[in-house]
Design a protein that fits this description.
alpha+beta; two-stranded antiparallel sheet; about 35% helix; single chain; 4 helices
Length: about 140
Amino acid sequence: MASVAGTASAVSVRPPRRLLQVSNGISGLKSVSFTNQRKSSVSIRSAPRLRVSCAAKPETMEKVCFIVRKQLAIADDTPVTGESIFSQLGADSLDTVEIVMGLEEEFGISVEEESAQSISTVQHAADMIELLLEKKKAA
């Protein structure tokens, strides 16, 4: 698990084994630090807006986007990205359940009901899959 610590003016993030992706989302920060297991760090100063999220592997993201596009019958010219929100793509709660079932089948995983209910974006689904695959590999 990644650890995140911070104050109103700074946030420090320690990722598990992979680098974290940074994009817009947290406001009012003056600095952000990232440290990996090799003890090297990267700092970003005066970041006006920032969001930190675990980055799923590109192939996982592609598969999730494909399953979402297929399940919701989304046209090829409509973008589906990590930031895509299921409800904004036209998914209702039944569609979300069917997306999760498709992901379980594709990746050979089992998603707990409470986790399935909390999925709202493609990125969140891909990150959850990565975590479940890591747990499966460790077992």
